[in-house]
Amino acid sequence: MTDPRIRDADDGDLDAIARVALATGQDEEWSGSDPAYIRHLLAHGRVVVAEHAGEVAGFGATRRIGSGPAAVTMLCDLFVSPRSHGAGIGQAMLAALWQPGTPRMTFSSLHAHALPLYTRAGLDAWWPLLYLTGDVAALRSPAGWAVSAATAAGAGALERDWTGIDRTADHQAWAARPGGQPVTASRAGQVLAAGTAGGADEEYGIVHLALDPAGTDPGMAGAGGRDGARAADETARDAVLAVLASLDPPDGRARACLPAPHPAVRPLLAAGWRCGDTDLFMTTDPALLDPRRAVPSPALA
């Protein structure tokens, strides 16, 4: 058995990456089998492939969120062809992609090999990410909220103002997906959330939603202690419900990927939405994503 050779990928590897993705069940839009997704990562992140036994047997990808020492490295993908399992390919790719000692996170699948691999790399599992799907007609926009179409540049600018992180390139890529549309959500005329909806077929829904911390920080919610926390939770909840209620999918159904503790989970389940899949948030620092506020992209966070 030969050692895997890890190298940076390029456009010439798209077909080989797609073959690995399909062999591991990643056949949906915005996965390794989708050239648009891999090209986005090639342009704005890092993609590596593993050569083993004369062929590309695995691929992995990361996207840096932010800049400088505080930048977070998001592991977007790490897949190995089933017939090459046990050759140390996943561990070798992870070592090439992640710099020890830096902030790191990923959404791990429930595959038996995934959690041990990421745990050995210094990450801990903190909470499940729920893939919730349901009928948008079962939802009502909370009183006082309005959702408007935006541009990728506009959504990116708002998120940059709120977080200091420029996600404009990601919003542009999300907007280019089937049904892609950047949006803003306002309460009483004040914009409190910005993000992008889109995706093909059963993936259609909220891709990523950023919140204005002035509206979702208990210390800034106009009341202290428990009342402040409740008001902040209500804002985070209502922003998600308002955006989902505004969507018009062809089959009436949409998706939202939410941390299990997010305040929008209970009303969605009460409205008949169901959890179809689950990932695990794994990270070197649980503060990198707030599970009561974050509405992350599972691929790019």
Structure write-up:
With 301 residues, this protein is of the alpha+beta class. It folds into two domains: 5-102, Gcn5-related N-acetyltransferase (GNAT) (Aminopeptidase); 131-288, 3-Layer(aba) Sandwich (Aminopeptidase), CATH 3.40.630. It is 29% helix and 31% strand. It has helices spanning 14-23, 35-44, 89-97, 114-120, 152-163, 168-175, 213-216, 225-246, 265-270, and strands at 5-8, 46-52, 55-65, 72-80, 104-108, 124-135, 145-149, 181-187, 190-198, 205-211, 253-259, 274-283. It has a twelve-stranded mixed sheet with strand order 1-2-3-4-5-12-6-11-10-9-8-7, sandwiched between helices. The two termini are 36 Å apart. The mean pLDDT is 94.
Beta fraction: 25-35%
Helix content: 25-40%
**Overall mean pLDDT score?**
94
Q: Taking strands numbered 1, 2, ... along the chain, how are they ordered across the largest sheet?
A: 1-2-3-4-5-12-6-11-10-9-8-7
Sheet with the most strands? 12 strands, mixed
Backbone structural class: alpha+beta
N-to-C series of helices and strands: EHHEEEHEHEEHHEEEHHEHE
Low-confidence spans: none
Q: Which second-level CATH architecture of the largest domain applies?
A: 3-Layer(aba) Sandwich
Total DSSP E strands? 12
Number of helices: 9
User: How much is the radius of gyration in Å?
Assistant: 19 Å
Principal-axes geometry comes out as: globular
What is the distance, rounded to the nearest whole angstrom, between the alpha carbons of the first and last residues?
36 Å
- The domain tally reads 2
CATH topology of the largest domain: Aminopeptidase
Name of the CATH first level of the largest domain: Alpha Beta
